[in-house]
């Protein structure tokens, strides 16, 4: 019997993907695809839970899919698809909406944070966002969901829905839905903002200088690192809680160079910020260059990406529809 695990994850096509998305999530997907059965979707239905431009939505959806490929997701190993191409996501979301207690959602930290950002324009969709995410995961009976630290609470909700609200209530052998586990990397699961080492790097930060986007040119990377917040101390440290910016940049440096943080701390104990910033700028430019080259070739050939996505849709849809039928049968829908 195969001991391959089923894996699913996704990124929203809202604006440009950044270093946090890559180091915290997509990098991990690439490593998982050889040994497992992997599904990666572009979650466009999640992207409309905040204000958006219709023209930008389709452009960003295509560009996010191209970035998955450029980062090394291989369509020969993984199923790559667009969430809205598979109606089962919305349908299971509705069913889960009806069986999930409202107070489970009221606890969601991301909803609280995002509703503050969105002021008086908060949609019901933003509130329901974690249920749609649960539907994404549960439809594929995923064992593992590789995400950044910020998604842990949403994963716990998906587990509770599967276990307590579906399996325990509606099935005799408790096996309608697989209960998924989060997979959060030790390193890189929370990359911080360049201008404030206590805040997460995020697409929704209005200050562009807070993040490195995967498609930033060498000039822009150089400028952003130059402007990145530093402190007045010599030496780059990892474990000093007073120096979050130093810790964050050292973590990024360590992941990209493959050198342990402890060893880097030793090497950089006498190095000032100016020299360190030069080193990390060079490393970032070098790490992103191959990915950017691949992206340029791919985005010039949308026909090829569309073909991959069509193929992905077919494969994903048959899995999703079979789970949805099972859920509907067990929940008593007339056939
Ligand atoms: P999003 O950009 O919100 O669609 O996030 C897509 C994926 O990237 C999720 O798995 C997030 O947990 C992950 N992610 C987003 N921001 C960061 C960050 N600053 N550090 C690490 N992972 C992140
Ligand atoms: N909510 C996730 C984020 O913002 C994106 C997402 C939607 C997702 N559906 C998912 C991630 C399913 C993993 C699995 O990062």
CATH topology label of the largest domain: Rossmann fold
Q: Span between N and C termini? A: 33 Å
Q: What's the rounded overall pLDDT mean?
A: 96
Strand order of the largest sheet: 1-2-3
**CATH homologous group name of the largest domain:** HUPs
Order of helices and strands: EHEHHEHHHHEHEHHHHH
The CATH C-level class name of the largest domain: Alpha Beta
- Cα-atom Rg, whole angstroms? 21 Å
Stretches where pLDDT is under 50 for at least 5 consecutive residues are none
Per CATH, which architecture of the largest domain? 3-Layer(aba) Sandwich
Strand content: 5-15%
Q: What's the tally of helices?
A: 13
User: What does the overall shape look like?
Assistant: globular
The ligands found in this model are: adenosine monophosphate, tryptophan
Q: Helix fraction?
A: 40-55%
Tally of separate domains:
2
Tell me the number of strands: 5
Structural class: mainly alpha
Main beta sheet: strand number and arrangement?
A: 3 strands, parallel
Features:
single chain; 335 residues; mainly alpha; Rossmann fold; Tyrosyl-Transfer RNA Synthetase; 2 domains; three-stranded parallel sheet; two-stranded parallel ribbon; 13 helices; 55% helix; binds adenosine monophosphate; binds tryptophan
Gist of the model:
This protein has helices spanning 19-32, 44-47, 54-70, 88-99, 102-106, 109-118, 124-139, 152-170, 218-227, 244-257, 261-267, 273-299, 302-330, and strands spanning 6-11, 37-42, 78-82, 144-146, 181-183. The chain is mainly alpha-helical and 335 residues long.
């Amino acid at each position: 019997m195969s001991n391959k695990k089923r894996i699913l994850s996704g990124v929203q096509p809202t604006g440009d993907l950044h270093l946090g998305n890559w180091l915290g999530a997509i990098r991990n997907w690439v490593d998982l695809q050889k040994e497992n059965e992997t599904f990666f979707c572009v979650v466009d239905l999640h992207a409309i839970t905040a204000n958006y431009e219709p023209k930008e939505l389709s452009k960003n959806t295509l560009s996010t899919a191209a970035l998955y490929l450029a980062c090394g997701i291989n369509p020969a190993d993984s199923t790559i698809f667009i969430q809205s191409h598979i109606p089962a996501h919305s349908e299971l979301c509705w069913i889960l909406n009806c069986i999930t207690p409202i107070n489970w959602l009221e606890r969601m930290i991301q909803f609280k944070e995002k509703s503050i950002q969105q002021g008086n324009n908060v949609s019901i969709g933003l509130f329901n966002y974690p249920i749609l995410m649960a539907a994404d995961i549960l439809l594929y009976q995923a064992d593992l969901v590789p995400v950044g630290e910020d998604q842990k609470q949403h994963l716990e909700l998906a587990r509770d829905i599967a276990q307590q609200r579906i399996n325990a209530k509606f099935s005799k052998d408790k096996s309608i839905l697989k209960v998924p586990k989060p997979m959060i990397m030790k390193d890189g699961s929370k990359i911080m903002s360049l201008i404030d080492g206590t805040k997460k790097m995020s697409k929704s930060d209005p200050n562009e200088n807070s993040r490195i986007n995967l498609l930033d040119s060498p000039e822009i990377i150089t400028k952003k690192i130059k402007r990145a917040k530093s402190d007045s101390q010599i030496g780059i440290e990892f474990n000093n809680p007073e120096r979050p910016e130093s810790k964050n940049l050292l973590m990024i440096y360590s992941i990209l160079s493959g050198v342990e943080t402890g060893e880097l701390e030793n090497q950089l104990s006498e190095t000032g910020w100016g020299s360190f910033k030069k080193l990390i700028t060079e490393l970032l430019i070098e790490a992103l260059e191959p990915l950017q080259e691949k992206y340029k070739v791919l985005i010039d050939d949308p026909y090829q990406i569309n073909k991959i996505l069509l193929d992905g849709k077919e494969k994903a849809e048959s899995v999703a529809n079979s789970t949805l039928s099972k859920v509907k049968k067990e929940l008593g829908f007339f056939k």
